[in-house]
Amino acid sequence: LLTVTVFLSTLTPKFYFALTVTSSFISGLIFVFEWWHFRKYGTSFIEQVSVSHLRPLIGGVESSPPAPVVFSANSGEHETNRQNMPECKVWRNPLNLFRGAEYSRYMWVTGKEPLTYYDMNLSAQDHQNFFTCDTDALRPSDTVMQKAWRERNPQARIKAAYQALELNNDCATAYVLLAEEEATTIVDAEKYFKQALKAGETIYRKSQNCLSQSPQHEAQLRRDTNVLVYVKRRLAMCARKLGRIREAVKMMRDLMKEFPLLSMLNIHENLLEALLELQAYADVQAVLAKYDDISLPKSAAICYTAALLKARAVSERFSPETASKRGLSTAEINAVEAIHRAVEFNPHVPKYLLEMKSLVLPPEHILKRGDSEAVAYAFFHLQHWKRIEGALNLLHCTWEGTFRMIPYPLEKGHLFYPYPSCTETADRELLPTFHEVSVYPQKELPFFIHFTAGLCSFSAMLALLTHQFPELMVVFAKAV
User: Fold this and answer.
1) What is the widest separation between alpha-carbon atoms in the chain?
2) Structurally, how many domains does the chain consist of?
3) Which GO terms describe its cellular component (predicted)?
4) pTM of this prediction?
């Protein structure tokens, strides 16, 4: 103890100044790292390490892991059963772009990868589910394509598609792959899809006329149906992108009429967008009357399109000053309630529609009620909101009122089930790293960010005082 006392009495003001500066610098680095980790991952690094590694060592109970993100292509389940579904269910984006003609062109121009590995891996699973079956081994071209869908390298997939066409010039799935990944323009993609349609219709008719009722035949018929529906839908999307909108609408209506049981593919969302482009609002209302039903799963496209139609009736003459004086009319109340309903379903959309956040290319898969769905919706529908005079103004004036009705959205909703707690994690997997993921509800800053910020500030203040009043601070340090 005497040695320690003698040592402390010999310390100079320079030592205390260096000590406080070093302490301030280190705590500042920890604060910056904590802030970065929270912005990127939504959690405190120190808190995460403490819970994961330290709590089990001191006898605490390890927290249960979050529910895994589950992918499924089945969207025909009833709204009443949604509480039994996994919280974070990933769905195929009904309006997903073309790999070669759109995503790849974006990467060539910007140097940024628009799709995440997780998103592309889900697409690979989709392709294997849609375009392969147990009888592929009987046909050499389909065997090659079965391997192609599993291949990670795009050039290897394209090479395999050409190999399949050498074995069988009527291999529809090979044309599909070339249309999606090799074609660098929508025109080229449409040419490949037309060849795929010709081959797919021939194979589909053969499967239909086959008298065998074996499980293998049923699997092959299901695969051939999937190929035909996929090709017709993509051809309709090509027509929409090339400006032949009425043709696209007819193709979509015919497809929905020919295959009414495939509602889980959400072709009606493609139809809604095309009808909005035509400004055929009566037809849009007719589609909504069929699909905006309490027994069917909702989506941002359905909820926000319903709100847009209600807003269209009043937005041109709407003024917040006038409304505050005379009160809202019945039509205005209906429009505001529709906006509140849409915002409760997906609270991320308004910031994109109001251009408070920048858009990126939508992913190939989306999470309903999440930021990925908001990006996908706004990417295609922002122009429709802009076209209706006053619609965005009405949205701007009313959308934040939704949050007063649901002060605790993770615990209790108003018109929908409570907001899922794991959307942020799933959206970070689906959206590119250069996009700032929207988080709802906004999280409070973790304790350790406040703590490290306070420690850094306190150390910096001590360093400043030591520099300005060295003798006084030495006396204070020795007294302490």
Assistant:
1) 101
2) 3
3) membrane
4) 0.76
